[in-house]
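Quick one, tokens below:
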């Protein structure tokens, strides 16, 4: 049985990587998909849209820089016009600009905070009326490193830890409306974001991971499909590790 029939899901940063896997998974569960990314990723968005359509699903894409409130507001209006509703918001878009604090520039700090954390404020706030109407839910991508810290990532870990606090607080504010708010904390997942990591670091991460391997975007998408759907109806304010045991 498809668990997300008649639902509409917006996934930010969904032209590739984990976001794309989430879009494909939610579509396979019957959801209509609103894809999002920034202009340089338009061709990739078209490919994901075609993949969903070829599999019998429905998808449209909306270009917006999620760190900019006015662009997000317009995107949300377009989603409402095109689909008439929104049930699931997945705050997935994110970047890294790693450097020790001693060397980090103000721009590197600000950009990472804006795209990873302010985007979650922008999207969640503008989606609120629609989500309250549909008794929908929000799922944001935190990270293992946001919970535990990671060398060279003061900007990224501050943003990802911020998502944890945001998620817990918003779940308290929206519980009375029947809107659930959760986050996931993936460990090392194979994507463009992690492929640049030095080989010796990957070896160390695998060693520290109980399952002895890195994760696939689809393994994150499976947990998000669960959180987004009716089987997670009593789950809110939670942060679920998807890390093969790395956090242990
Ligand atoms: P990717 O870099 O593969 O995908 C992220 C997507 O977001 C890219 O298409 C990127 O475009 C897009 N994006 C960047 N800036 C914006 C913006 N301002 N507005 C809209 N879209 C934007 O990353 P992953 O798939 O690996 O990561 C997805 C999420 O999961 C991120 O939040 C990440 O922090 C989190 N995560 C990832 C882990 C991993 O091991 N991969 C582990 C834990 C958490 P462009 O490429 O042009 O920048």
């Amino acid at each position: 049985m498809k668990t997300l029939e008649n639902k509409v899901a917006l996934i930010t940063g969904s032209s590739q990587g984990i976001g794309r896997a989430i879009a494909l998974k939610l579509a396979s569960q019957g959801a209509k998909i609103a894809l999002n990314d920034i202009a340089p990723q338009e061709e990739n968005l078209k490919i994901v849209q075609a993949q969903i359509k070829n599999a019998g699903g429905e998808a449209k894409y909306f270009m917006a820089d999620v760190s900019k409130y006015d662009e997000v507001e317009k995107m949300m209006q377009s989603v409402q016009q095109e689909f008439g509703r929104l049930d699931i918001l997945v705050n997935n878009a994110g970047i890294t600009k790693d450097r020790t604090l001693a060397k980090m520039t103000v721009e590197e700090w600000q950009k990472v905070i804006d795209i990873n954390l302010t985007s979650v404020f922008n999207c969640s706030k503008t989606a609120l009326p629609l989500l309250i109407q549909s008794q929908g839910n929000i799922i944001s991508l935190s990270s293992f490193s946001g919970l535990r810290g990671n060398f060279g990532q003061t900007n990224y870990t501050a943003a990802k830890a911020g998502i944890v606090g945001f998620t817990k607080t918003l779940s308290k504010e929206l519980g009375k409306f029947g809107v659930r708010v959760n986050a996931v904390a993936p460990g090392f997942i194979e994507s463009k974001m992690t492929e640049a990591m030095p080989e010796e670091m990957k070896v160390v991460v695998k060693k520290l991971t109980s399952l002895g391997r890195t994760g696939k975007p689809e393994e994150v998408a499976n947990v998000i499909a669960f959180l987004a759907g009716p089987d997670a109806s009593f789950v809110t304010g939670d942060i679920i590790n998807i890390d093969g045991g790395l956090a242990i």
